[in-house]
Amino acid sequence: MGSILKAVILIGGPQKGTRFRPLSLELPKPLFPLAGFPMIYHHIEACSKVENLKEILLIGFYQPSESLTHFISSTQQEFKIQIRYLQEYTAMGTAGGIHHFRDQIMSGNPEAFFILNGDVCGDFPLADMYDFHRERSAGIRTTIMGTEATMQESVKYGCLVENPETHEVLHYVEKPGTFVSSKINTGIYLCSPDIIHDLNDVWRRQQEENFNGGFGDILARPSESISLEHNVFSEMASAGKLLVYYTTRFWSQIKSPGSTLYANRHYLQLYHETHPDRLAKNGDGLPSIIDDVFIHPTATVHSTAMLGPNVSIGPNATVGAGVRIKESIVLEHATLQDHCCVLYSIVGWNSVVGPWSRVEGTPCDPNPNKPFAKIQSVPLFNMAGKLNPSITILGCNVQVPGEVIILNSVVLPHKDLAGSFKNQIIL
Predict the structure, then answer these.
(1) Contacts of 291 (CB under 8 A, 6+ apart)
(2) Backbone angles phi, psi at 193, to 5 degrees
(3) Sequence-distant (≥ 6) Cβ neighbours of residue 276 within 8 angstroms
(4) Using alpha carbons only, what angle is made at residue 288 by residues 282 and 293, rounded to the nearest 5 degrees?
(5) Which pLDDT does position 139 carry in this prediction?
(6) Whole-number average pLDDT of the chain
(7) What region does 403 belong to: left with phi over 0, alpha with psi -120 to 50, or beta?
(8) What's the rounded Cα separation, in Å, for the pair 97 and 8?
């Protein structure tokens, strides 16, 4: 048996993910289902494929809840791997929680540990990344998983400049004001235990600055809040302690509800390689399936419905006769009544779409004509103060009557709609 590995998944907390509302009002954002499974389930599944990875730690500042506890216990049993939730007392940044819980992370003397941001999705080649890191680990503290972006989009991410021969990161800057490099940080890291020393140095320096700066600084920023991207990586790059491992596989951030449909599509595509049994098939007495569709075993879908491409139907959902669904996510206990049409939308928990109604949004996909283009997190409102076209979202327990159109709108939970709406937020 070789040296053990661990993984840390940063899941944030309720003050984070505000752009994800109203979906995060009912369920912690990391548990929102993509291709039928919670967002961080896909992270855990990727970690489970790494040999000798013995423990996964979820770090965030959500209050323990029934949904989180159930997710941890069920996932732990499925993958036969220890999973624990470590709750921060406040938001500590991407490195503050690592520093705060360093004893739990380092218990058992792991050879290295992964850090995965919970709000990214992708086909994570963690085993290949570990092999890359181990071959070059002398004096190296951290390996960043990197990918390519367009010149215009790269400034919205952490940018890095590398030595192409050694893959050493020479320069790192988070969200630069001007173009630095098209190589960007994906939010996936593999760290040697020695990184704890670097975090200790940053923490001590911040304590001294807070002490010397008076009470104002202490109130302005939690004293234990440390950011890997802002406080640590640039110094490590200067000291020659940072490597980059490049991947050309699918990767995207999940910042807004619109990005969930993009992530859902790609996870469904990955099922062809990893879990073909999860994809719905065509057959006698079954609904018509176009390309990639996930239907939960407990869902009820009428044989005359047509689903796809890129549709996920959640547990105990009901899809009536003649229903058409495309590029959408239908959540648990939702009901789509006969002959309604749902396009580029998310139908919330326990919501009902009436017969012959149309719920439609506008896709916000990356430009397919630009290589390496990433999905953009478009602001809710444009410069004129009007709602930007985006996907339509029905919060939980929304009632859409029959024979109406809901277009490019966001409906907050527990609303009974009386008619059609276009380009509105319905409070």
Answers:
(1) 308, 309, 310
(2) -55, -25
(3) none
(4) 75
(5) 66
(6) 88
(7) left
(8) 10
Token pair listed for 281: 């098939």
Asked if 319 contacts 287 with a C-beta cutoff of 8 angstroms, the reply is yes
pLDDT in tens, 376-421: 666 666 677 677 778 899 999 999 999 999 999 999 999 999 999 9
Distance CA(346)–CA(163), nearest Å, equals 44
Query: How many Cβ atoms sit within 10 Å of the Cβ of residue 86?
Result: 15
pLDDT at site 389: 72
Q: Can you give the pTM of this predicted structure? A: 0.91
Residue 125 has pLDDT above 90, yes or no: yes
126-130, 217-221, 276-280: least confident range: 217-221
Q: Which of 181, 174, 280, 185 is nearest to 230 (CA)?
A: 174
**Upstream peptide bond of 315 is cis (omega within 30 degrees of 0):** no
What is the pairing mode between strands 311-313 and 328-330? parallel
Residue whose token pair is 């092999």: 131
Distance CA 35, CA 55 (A): 25
> What string of DSSP letters covers 249-318?
S-EEE--SHHHHHHHHHHHHHHHHHH-GGGS----TTS-EE-S-EEE-TT-EE-TT-EE-SSEEE-TT-E
- Residue 157 tokens, joined: 């991410």
* φ/ψ of residue 83, rounded to 5: -130, 130
The first and second tokens of residue 37, run together, are 């499974």
Cβ(11)–Cβ(40) below 8 Å: yes
Q: Write down the residue that tokens 């600055």 correspond to.
A: 209
Closest listed residue to residue 420, CA positions, set 411, 387, 257, 381: 411
CA–CA separation, 101 and 92 (whole Å) = 11
User: What is the per-residue DSSP string for 143-199?
Assistant: EEEEEE--HHHHTTSEEEEE-TTT-BEEEEEES-SS---SEEEEEEEEE-TTHHHHH
Q: 388 by DSSP, 3-state: which? A: coil
